[in-house]
Amino acid sequence: MSVSAIESTLQQMASLATQAAGPSAGKSADEQPLKGTEPGSFSGELKAAVGRINELQQSAGNTAMAFQTGDPGVALHEVMVDMQKASVAFQMGVQVRNRLVSAYKDVMNMPV
């Protein structure tokens, strides 16, 4: 798998996660970026994608908890849509991880 194909997949993943998440809240002031995770770098984009998947899962969990506690402002269909968004995002993250591991193994098995 070529680098451009991986970058294309990551960009698609980022745009879909952004569309699914809608407007997101700002980052906390105490969140320190790790070395090599600048925006635009591979590790930075990967970290951001994992963060967006985490936000979707937390949002879905909060919506489900609100529904279970009887919040009148939360409907069942909202809970189901949020849970499905989180599930799809997680499955896509797993597939990207699998592809990256496969590409790494292919590179490592190349004769020198």
From TrEMBL:
InterPro entries: FliE. GO terms for cellular component: bacterial-type flagellum basal body. Coiled coil: none annotated. The lineage of its organism: Bacteria, Pseudomonadati, Pseudomonadota, Gammaproteobacteria, Aeromonadales. This is Flagellar hook-basal body complex protein FliE. One of its GO terms (biological process) is bacterial-type flagellum-dependent cell motility. Belongs to the FliE family. One of its GO terms (molecular function) is cytoskeletal motor activity. Its main location: other.
